[in-house]
Structures are given as structure tokens and as C-alpha cells.
């Protein structure tokens, strides 16, 4: 009977101290890795915005080929998704979903026609939705 008691006492398993040490190590790793991961995520959203702008530029150019002009200020980018009234030559949708008209931060892309930098300006103001900024708050423009 004494041998069985020893066997139970020596059984491998986790101790409270062992679990605490593992949790502390994981916490330290998270503290070091989290800022780098956030920088990576911010850069990825900025890159995604650049790619989305290129897709919207292509859609706007296709609209112009069909209609003979760029979407008006009143029509805006919604003209890429839904036929504007009176546009019989509209051959869209040029963008499949209206969600594609929003930047990676959930703000609508800004469209200005006539543009200050070309026939039209297409841009997003980044994460802060304000002009200028750096890192993730940096503007992404079509010009």
C-alpha cells in the first residue's frame, strides 16, 4: 500500500509555480511582439488602401469609357455600383459591392471631380480620417 501512495505523489503534472512561470514568459513575449505586430497591421492596411485605390481607378476609367465622362460630384462613387438615373450606356456594376467604396479603416473613399491633381481625385485620409499624418494616419492618394 505504501508503494501505491508514492506512485501517486510522484505522478508528472503541472504545478502552480510552473504555470505562473509560463504565463509570465508568455506575457513578456506579448509585450515585446505586440508593438511590432501593430506596426505590421498598420502597414498592411495602408498597402491594402493603395491596392483598393488602383481597383477603383480602373472602375472609374471603365465607367468613363461606357458613359463618356467620369461620375459627377452628385453621382459620386455610388455610380460604380448602381446605375445612375438616365444612364442607358451604363454597363456596370463596375464595383461589385458598395463596401468596396470604403477604405480599410471603414471610412468612405473621397472622390473629387473635377480634381485638383487631375480629372478627378480619389483618396483616403488614413486611420485618423484627417489630412496629413504619418504611419497609419498617412493619406493615400491617386495622384
Structure overview:
The protein has 143 residues and is mainly α. It contains two helices and three strands. It has helices spanning 2-9, 16-67; strands at residues 110-112, 121-124, 140-141. It has a three-stranded antiparallel beta sheet, with helices on one face. Strand 1 (110-112) and strand 2 form a beta hairpin. It is elongated and about 80 Å long.
Task: Give the key terms.
three-stranded antiparallel sheet
Q: So what's the overall shape?
A: elongated
The sequence of SSEs as H and E is HHEEE
Strand content: 5-15%
Poorly predicted runs: none
Termini separation comes to: 84 Å
The number of helical elements comes to: 2
Radius of gyration: 27 Å
Adjacency order of strands in the biggest sheet: 1-2-3
In short:
Helix content is 42%, strand content 6%. The protein contains two helices and three strands.
Give the SSE map.
Elements: H1 2-9, H2 16-67, E1 110-112, E2 121-124, E3 140-141
Antiparallel strand pairs: 1-2, 2-3
Amino acid at each position: 500500500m505504501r508503494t501505491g501512495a508514492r506512485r501517486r505523489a510522484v505522478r508528472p503534472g503541472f504545478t502552480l509555480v510552473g504555470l505562473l512561470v509560463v504565463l509570465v514568459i508568455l506575457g513578456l513575449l506579448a509585450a515585446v511582439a505586440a508593438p511590432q505586430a501593430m506596426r505590421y497591421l498598420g502597414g498592411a492596411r495602408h498597402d491594402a488602401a493603395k491596392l483598393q485605390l488602383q481597383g477603383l481607378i480602373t472602375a472609374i476609367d471603365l465607367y468613363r469609357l461606357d458613359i463618356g465622362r467620369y461620375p459627377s460630384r452628385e453621382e459620386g462613387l455610388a455610380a460604380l455600383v448602381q446605375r445612375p438615373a438616365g444612364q442607358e450606356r451604363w454597363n456596370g456594376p463596375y464595383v461589385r459591392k458598395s463596401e468596396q467604396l470604403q477604405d480599410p479603416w471603414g471610412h468612405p473613399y473621397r472622390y473629387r471631380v473635377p480634381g485638383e491633381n487631375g480629372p478627378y481625385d480619389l483618396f483616403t485620409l488614413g486611420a485618423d480620417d484627417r489630412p496629413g499624418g504619418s504611419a497609419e494616419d498617412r493619406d493615400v492618394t491617386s495622384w
